[in-house]
Write a structure and sequence with these properties.
This is histidine kinase. GO terms for molecular function: ATP binding. It catalyses: ATP + protein L-histidine = ADP + protein N-phospho-L-histidine. The chain has three domains: about 160 residues, 2-Layer Sandwich (Heat Shock Protein 90); about 70 residues; about 150 residues, Heat Shock Protein 90, CATH 3.30.565.10. Helices cover about 50% and strands about 20% of the residues. The protein has ten helices and twelve strands. The strands form three sheets. It has a five-stranded antiparallel sheet. Strands 7-9-10-12-11 form a five-stranded mixed sheet. It starts with 6 loop residues before the first strand and ends with a strand.
Length: about 450
């Protein structure tokens, strides 16, 4: 069990880099770390703070883990997301100053976590001692940047004295101290200039990102218009082909040979597949262009489930697959009945296509004020690294083949967009060889 945090602070300006360095050293001293380890912890904190402050304010939390090996933990978080891999590479050298360092994105921002094991004697960190440390840290008054420079200089002097204690005299030590002072000041000035240059680069990068975002939005809008126009123009001739094929095979038309029947059926089947694809493209283009406006009303889920059970049962014709639509655990919710039914129909149709044996099941229950619709199957399953890609247009999992019908790769992307329009979200959990579970979560009230 992790103890209550020792101390928290927020870094906002460059000056706070010195403050967090001093506070880190004070925390390390209070919990029993040796002088060199205090310096390592303080240096690691200041270096990470310098990097994180370039992208926004940073919250710092100090905690002691007393279970098992006593350990000092430091978490440094800022609300903006980013390239965690690049940040980890930047801090690779800093990670050598502590036992462990991790950089990750917890969904609300980037977090850098550091840990340093404490000496065995720290088992005396009783709750009363921890309270004393918290009180002392709360009363700690940060020094000025010059004070911190003086402390750093003293640490350097101590290190030099330990290494060369047998050879250096007081005069040489004073000369080295003076040289160190000049070097530290020069380094401080250099770091300040680099920080200023980095800030200018970040501003320029944000401007470029805004420009790229505008270009991407324009390209996306153009793509949606193109899909909508092309799909609309294709529907008429494709529908005509299907109609002509039906006329050719009608009982009132001239008799066809078996070969002609086969060819006409092939033409009709291909045209039907093409019409399905065109309709999918048109629906997706409408969703992307924001042309779908929900019609909110109280939806009777029992009626919706009954309709889905009746219209989709003819698709589940294989005896090896049980098609199960459970009685809804949520009687009603406020949503768009047509769009909701479309999402569930797409999910169920997709499950039936890729399930060779076992079951396809639809259920709904209430969770934390929301309704969760669950469509589960015992089909091929989806590898973890591909589970988000199935929501991309035209993408199909390599090696998976529909047991019945044909897939276009548009049903799941369209279903996720409709889920967003309805104010909810669609996710998938799957295990290859065992099946998949698609969960649609919607608010009970719009």
């Amino acid at each position: 069990m992790t103890a209550e945090p020792l101390m928290r602070m927020r870094l906002r300006v460059e000056q706070d880099i010195f403050v967090v360095r001093q506070l880190g050293r004070e925390v390390a001293r209070s919990v029993g770390l040796e002088t060199q380890d205090q310096t390592r912890v303080a240096t690691a904190l200041s270096e990470v703070a310098r990097v994180l402050l370039t992208v926004g304010h940073t919250d710092v939390t100090f905690t002691i883990e007393t279970i098992g090996v006593p350990t000092l933990h430091v978490a440094m978080a800022h609300p903006g997301g980013g390239d965690t891999a690049r940040l980890a590479e930047q801090l690779q050298q800093v990670g050598r100053l502590v036992d462990t360092m991790e950089v990750d994105d917890d969904g609300t921002g980037t977090v850098v976590r550091m840990a340093r094991r404490l000496p065995s004697g720290t088992s005396l960190l009783t709750p009363d001692r921890m309270d004393e440390i918290r009180t002392g840290l709360a009363q700690h008054v940060p020094g000025t940047p010059l004070d911190e420079l003086a402390v750093q200089n003293q640490q350097l002097i101590s290190a030099l004295d330990e290494v060369r204690a047998q050879r250096d005299d007081l005069a040489r030590l004073n000369a080295e101290l003076e040289e160190t002072n000049r070097g530290v000041m020069a380094l401080y000035n250099q770091l300040s200039e680099e920080l200023e240059e980095t800030n200018r680069g970040v501003v320029a990068l944000y401007a470029e990102l805004d420009e790229k975002s505008a270009q991407l939005a324009a390209a996306s809008e153009a793509k949606s218009r193109f899909l909508a126009n092309v799909s609309h123009e294709l529907r008429a001739p494709v529908t005509a082909i299907i109609g002509l094929g039906r006329l050719l095979t009608d009982s009132g038309s001239d008799d066809l040979t078996n070969e002609q029947h086969r060819q006409v059926d092939l033409i009709r089947g291909s045209a039907t597949d093409l019409l399905t694809l065109v309709n999918g493209l048109l629906d997706l283009a409408k969703a992307e262009a924001g042309r779908i406006e929900p019609t909110w009303s109280e939806v009777d889920l029992k009626a919706v489930f009954g309709q889905l059970r009746g219209t989709l049962r003819p698709l589940a014709t294989r005896p090896e697959v049980d098609f199960i639509v459970e009685e809804p655990g949520v009687p009603t919710l406020r949503s768009d009945e047509v769009l909701l039914a479309q999402v569930l129909r797409n999910l169920l149709t997709n499950a039936i296509k890729f399930t060779e044996s076992g079951s396809v099941r639809l259920s709904v229950h209430q969770t934390d004020g929301d309704a969760e619709f669950v469509v589960s199957d015992t089909g091929y399953g989806i590898p973890p690294e591909l589970q988000e890609r199935v929501f991309e247009e035209f993408y199909q999992v390599p090696g998976s083949k529909p047991v019945s019908g044909k897939g276009t790769g548009l049903g799941l992307p369209y279903a996720r967009r409709l889920a967003g329009i309805l104010g909810g979200a669609l996710r998938v959990d799957s295990t290859p060889g065992e099946g998949s579970t698609f969960t649609l979560r919607l608010p009970l009230t719009s």
